[in-house]
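Handout, section B. The chain below has 322 residues.
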Amino acid sequence: MAAALRGLGLLHGRARVVAAVSASLGRSGRRVTVRAGTAAAALRSAGRSYGSDAKEEEELRVRYLDDEHKGIVVLGLNRSRAKNALNKNILKMMSKAVDALKSDKNVRTVIFRSEVPGIFCAGADLKERAKMHASEVGSFVSKARATINEMANLPVPTIAAIDGIALGGGLELALACDIRVAASTAKMGLVETKLAIIPGAGGTQRLPRTIGVSLAKELIFSARVVDGDEAKSIGLISHVVEQNEAGDAAYRRALALAREFLPQGPVAMRVAKLAINQGMEVDLVTGLAIEEACYAQTIPTKDRIEGLLAFKEKRPPCYKGE
């Protein structure tokens, strides 16, 4: 009887997980009411500009791409004097931008890159950190963790284009993306133990899930920095490319990858990401139930019918995210 009760409890637990996934689908799937104009306005207020020496409001550049890249949004870190270090202002801007993006059905893929040559993100702004009282540090790290987690939970595919140094919080930001692309000359590492602290914006959790527990411990314990080729060999990144004269080879590869995603069904892309993310955190049986719940969301869509018609008529489908 006890065993049966435990089994019943497990089933109830799985039901709760699937119910939570269904609720998430209600928020992020096709049933969401979207006001794209409001989202776009919020993004513009988050800093859409093109200066060489960024003011505070320009530390994060947001660009909606057009023509064959329509549907791709690029978020560019732009703190040249601070090597794109994460400070209070840029975290606030990132949070604001991500909040707008997650409810904009016109967004298909988001690319995170640097507008500063040779740098992706050097981590937390230690000069700002040095001025904080000890009581403020925990709050700042919590904000950084929450912001990067919001980014990880964007319902569309995200790609980190690492064309330079990505250390500490910079690598944590990249780890929160679905896919990472880096130049062979890029340098990456979670180096916090050198400062007698630990990664605090998700690094201790996402790095082991990406490259395995033992190797993640080795890299964090040693504060080792790896280049693009080694990062590819250990599974930290998906693609490594030779750097070009413009210094944006990883961004170019990320852009090409994002274009591969554009023709696919928008609702399917969103629920596929949710199914994978949620399924990786549970046992296989529960994961299959999550997949079933996610698949069910695609059945009543107009896009699914369009896909069948396009296949029958031997033409490219025209999906609308409906």
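Note. The chain has a mean pLDDT of 85. Compare this with the example in section A.
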